[in-house]
Amino acid sequence: MRRKDKEIQDQGDISQVIRKCQVCRLGLSQDNMPYIVPVSFGYDGKVLYFHSARDGKKIDILTANSNVCFEFESGVELISDENKPCSWTFSFQSVVGFGKAEEVVSQEGKVEGLKRVMEQYSDKEWDFPGMSLDGLRVWKIDIESITGKQSKDHVE
């Protein structure tokens, strides 16, 4: 990271940024063409989970190239300076990482992934008894690298 003064080095702090987020943006690529898509997600500290429909552009790209980039941001706030237009900035925290997406095919694995997704958005424990999960696909991203960044003006 070029700006070491903005780096979030503690993995616990990076996890806290992710836990505050509502959306994960996935960066995908096929035939040297980038594609970014927002997804709901779950996170367990080492793996990201998301679900998808059975078919679609995201699925076509993931099956051709499982390498992904992901991004989170939280606490974004514009800091303006009415006297100096080039002095405007943002307060923020962000996380960027890389990994490989892999489809989860077992019923037990799908349930685990969906539980992680629901944990991101709810404090309730969810179960999926007797629910057919055949109409959706669950994916996991084994995180290979991850970095965090925050503005020096960031305030919790």
Task: Tell me what you see in this structure.
With 156 residues, this protein is an alpha+beta fold. It is globular, with a radius of gyration of 18 Å. The protein starts with 6 loop residues before the first strand and ends in a 6-residue tail after the last strand. Strands 1, 2, 3, 4, 5, 6, 7 and 8 form an 8-stranded antiparallel β-sheet that branches. It is built from 3 helices and 8 strands; from the N terminus they run βαββββαββαβ. It has one domain: Electron Transport, Fmn-binding Protein, Chain A (Pnp Oxidase, Chain A, Roll), CATH 2.30.110.10.
Write the layout of secondary structure elements.
Elements: E1 7-8, H1 11-19, E2 24-30, E3 33-39, E4 42-43, E5 47-52, H2 57-64, E6 67-79, E7 89-104, H3 107-121, E8 137-150
Antiparallel strand pairs: 1-8, 2-3, 2-6, 4-5, 5-8, 6-7, 7-8
Give structural attributes:
single chain; 156 residues; alpha+beta; Pnp Oxidase, Chain A; eight-stranded antiparallel beta sheet; 3 helices; 21% helix
Summarize the structure.
The chain has 156 residues and is of the alpha+beta class. The protein has a single domain (4-150), classed as Pnp Oxidase, Chain A.
What is the domain tally? 1
The SSE order reads: EHEEEEHEEHE
Judging by the overall fold, what is the CATH architecture? Roll
Shape call = globular
Identify the CATH homologous superfamily: Electron Transport, Fmn-binding Protein, Chain A
Tally of separate helices: 3
The main β sheet shows up as: 8 strands, antiparallel
**Structural class by SSE content:** alpha+beta
Q: Briefly note the CATH topology name.
A: Pnp Oxidase, Chain A
CATH classification, class level: Mainly Beta
Q: How far apart are the first and last residues' alpha carbons, in Å?
A: 22 Å
What percentage of amino acids are in beta strands?
A: 35-45%
Query: Low-confidence parts, pLDDT < 50 over ≥5 residues?
Result: none
Computed over alpha carbons, the radius of gyration is 18 Å
Mean pLDDT: 88
- The count of β-strands is 8
* Helix content range: 10-25%
